[in-house]
Design a protein that fits this description.
Length: about 290
């Protein structure tokens, strides 16, 4: 029981006690006056006419006094009943407000639970399958120093990569902002006398206007291969989806375990596992 309701009940008990005391008091007064009336009535039977008039006058005064006290008692009782009714109305009003607050609290608790779940998903998103790797040693090959998608690459993607790519998109637990396609190479130098046209032609190529890309180093090679794969992936997007696909290059800097490559060593120049395309989802919270 709320503090307010306990106070109302206490007040009702006090009012009931007061009414009982008032009724007992007026019952006592009535008994006294009744005794006086009986005495006066007996006296009128033994008295003469003048004594009878005096007794009647006294009875009239006593009756008026008693009537006034009874009216006062009735007024007091009516006032107390009014207080009780107003108290009950206050209790109903408070109960209605308490009900409204309880409903609002329940709504807020449900919203908090939803937000806590979203926070948990965001905190654990590093455990989600947010990327896949298409490595040369897994069949995703390019001709040495070239960027064209080979038949071997297409065949391997059709057999397993396509399913992995679509599962990556379907199982993402966050809103996808873009798909990053990152080209990785090993440290074998690029042997070419060509000049690079990436500054001039990369943007047009990515936007689908075709043309060959030329490069002079591993960073450029990684970017050109990523651009080709980005165009290749568009045909495998889910129906109705139009994710932005962004080609990037890590060159020879990042190892397959996501660590930074150490300084060049004799055994680091021709490693198939390092020559790969990484497909990574970029969430809207990043």
């Amino acid at each position: 029981m709320s503090l307010f309701r306990r106070k109302i009940v206490e007040r009702e008990d006090i009012v009931a006690a007061s009414m009982s005391e008032i009724m007992l008091f007026f019952l006592f007064v009535c008994l006294i006056l009744l005794g006086n009336i009986l005495d006066l009535y007996g006296a009128t039977n033994d008295a003469g006419p003048s004594d009878q008039d005096q007794a009647i006058a006294q009875l009239t005064v006593a009756n008026a006094e008693l009537t006034g006290k009874l009216n006062g008692a009735n007024a007091t009782i009516a006032a107390l009943r009014g207080q009780i009714l107003r108290g009950n109305a206050d209790v109903k009003d408070k109960d209605a407000k308490i009900g409204a607050y309880a409903a609002k609290n329940k709504e807020l608790e449900e919203r908090i639970a939803e937000l806590e779940l979203q926070i948990t998903l965001l905190e654990n998103r590093h455990d989600l399958p947010m990327s896949i790797s298409l490595a040369e040693n897994a069949g995703y090959t390019f001709d040495s120093g070239e960027t064209d998608i080979t038949p071997e690459f297409r065949r391997e993607f059709s057999q397993s990569g396509q399913r992995e790519f679509r599962d990556l998109l379907a199982n993402a637990q966050v809103a996808i902002q873009a798909i990053e396609v990152i080209g990785h190479t090993d440290e074998r130098p690029v042997n070419t006398t060509r000049y690079s046209n990436l500054d001039r032609s990369l943007k047009s190529h990515v936007n689908g206007f075709g043309g060959s890309l030329r490069f002079v180093d591993n960073v450029g090679l990684g970017m050109a291969r990523a651009a080709e794969v980005a165009q290749f992936l568009k045909q495998y997007l889910p129906p109705g989806k139009s994710y932005q696909i962004i080609p990037l290059s890590a060159g020879q800097l990042q190892l397959p375990n996501n660590r930074l490559a150490p300084g060049r060593s004799p055994n680091s120049t021709d490693i198939q596992a390092r020559r790969r395309i990484e497909i990574r989802l970029r969430s809207q919270t990043r």
